[in-house]
Amino acid sequence: MTTFQDIYRVYGKPVYRFLLKLTGSSDQAEELLQETFYQAFLHIERFKGRCSVYTWLCQIGKNAWLKECKRRQRFDTRAWEEFEFADGNAPPEEAAIRKEEYRRVRQAVLALEEPYQEVFVMHTFGGVPLKEIAAEHEKSESWARVTYMRARKLLADKLL
User: Fold this and answer.
1) Of 23, 73, 85, 104, whose CB count within 10 A is highest?
2) Backbone angles phi, psi at 87, to 5 degrees
3) 92-116: per-residue pLDDT in tens?
């Protein structure tokens, strides 16, 4: 029998990396990781086994991230300014450009409607196979593939 501690041991680091890609902040990724596993623990009976445990945890993490995005947009007009860049030695001009690009991409992703947003985030940031995303939505793999490609097109149109 698998304990919840075993689940955390196996999936903690991969889910953290997923959240780090979403947030760009190690502190925020840590907070969301805690919230993700807390929610998973509270609602373990909701796991139906249609997808992998990793996919299920990433969905919980994505939802926690979206909730935090909405909260920050409501209460902080300077949302996401704390983004940590991997290259702290970059010239200020380059860092400013990267920060602005990151902000634009984040806004575009947040503006996507469902299911485009979920499929794009799960596949791009979580590395969740389209087959698993389709299974979770009880759709075909071709539905997931088309939805993902449409999401990419919508993002490209918004960012150009």
Assistant:
1) 23
2) -100, 95
3) 787 777 778 877 887 888 888 988 9
